[in-house]
Amino acid sequence: MTAPLFSVIIPLEYHRGQWERCWRGWQAQTLPKFQFEIVLVVPPNFPEQEKLSALLGPQDRLEYSTERHDIGLCVTGAARARGDFLFFTESHCWPEPDVLERVLHAFETQPQWAALSGQTIRVAHNRLSHAEADMYDADIEHGLKAHPWRKVLDACFVTRRDSYEACGGLKSGLGHFAEWALAADYFELGFKIGHAPEVRMYHYYIGELAELHKFTTDFTIGEMTYLSQGAYGPGGHLLEVPSEWICQGNWDRRLARSLLRITTRDLLARSAESTRRLPALAKTAQRWLAPAIGGTCAARAKAAARVWWATAMLKCAALIGSRARLSTVFREYVAALIDHQRLKCIQSRHNAGASAGVPLRDSEPAWDVFAPDNAGFYPIEISGKTRFRWSEPAAIIPAWMPAGRHRICIECLPIRDLGGTGHTRFYFNEEPVSAQDVAIGQDSIEIKLELGESRHSTLAWTCLSFPAIADGRLLGLPIKRIRWDFVSEAPAPRVAAKTSRQTRDILHRA
Question: What is residue 434's predicted lDDT score, i.e. its pLDDT?
Answer without folding.
Answer: 92
